[in-house]
Amino acid sequence: MRRKLCACALLLALLAALPKAWAAENEINVYNWGQYIADGTDGAIDVIREFEAATGIHVNYSTFDSNETLRTKLLTGGASYDVIIPSDYMIGWLIGQDMLEPLNFDNIPNYQYVDDAFKNMTYDPENRYSVPYTWGTTGLIYNTRYVAELDSWTALWDPAYAGKILMFDNCRDAFAISQLILGHDLNTEDPVLFQAEADRLREQKPLVQQYVMDQIFSKMEREEAWIAPYYAGDYLTMVEENPNLAFCHPKEGFNLFVDAACIPKGCANKAGAEAFINFLCDPEVSGRNLDYLGYSTPISAAKAYMDPETAANPVAYPDAETLERGKSFSALSQASNQQMDALWLEVRTSGSDTTRDLLLSGAVILAVVALMLVQQQRRRRRKARRCRSRTQPPPKA
Does the predicted TM-score (pTM) go above 0.90? Predict the structure, then answer.
């Protein structure tokens, strides 16, 4: 009898495993930045649907808003992904932590189209773990109706724009702006310099309307804010909605980044992930995808499938003189990351009215509770009076 029970249990276990194995072969989980792939809007290519039609592999797609959010998700193990698209410095960090799978380039033949300038990058010098997806720059987006022509990051500290300034809501990009103003290296690990950079950011806080990432689109397009640092590719999307917006690469310098597709350790469908990466590298797919996104392609052959105006746009493809001011991030040590995170938390919470708000909230709660008690007591008294009136004998005639 025990043998029969064990055999049945084994059969059930095998049957339960079959759907999971089938699903792993026929689906992948992709984790990408928000608003960072063409989805068929306005006649653009729907990259995911085209991939599914071409391969029969279903894509479960979700988004993050910063490299730090991605890192936290991977570290906590809250979900399993087959493809992720982090930025250069985060790729270097993930490689250092042994959190990425080496790629099988036999499954990625379209890698041949990636320009040599985007191979053997410092974050992945042997081209083992990543395939470039896009590249781009950061800069200042501003509304020409309210803001004069800009050329410096210091505009984000200008009291004339108080309450209309947005700021990056991630520590690496925010600290980079402070570093560029102060003349520091974007990859410094000096604790003293970190503190000076945090102090500079703390000075800015009273002028900031909100720290944002994807929320910048609605705020700048609707003119709820006038000036913000952000990515050049996203500016090209925003300006289509609001032609009053302008962009500049500040004179102090700016971050020049590469975002690349990687496969995290423990993925369920590595072959499917590599098929997706290969699809992204097809020149026509890359061209039509990035023509919609506004970001820059690392595949020169893709420009043949772009609108010529997009392919020649100086914001997406700055000239050599501008690019000389571009500076790339490198992976920082764990200790430096922790210090930067801690200082950023201090900046975000410094001078806030958190304590006052808590006290006010507590006072409101107490007032509501007191009012409820008073009303409850009154109801009891009314009920008691009604009960007494019903039990008392009628008055004598």
Answer: no
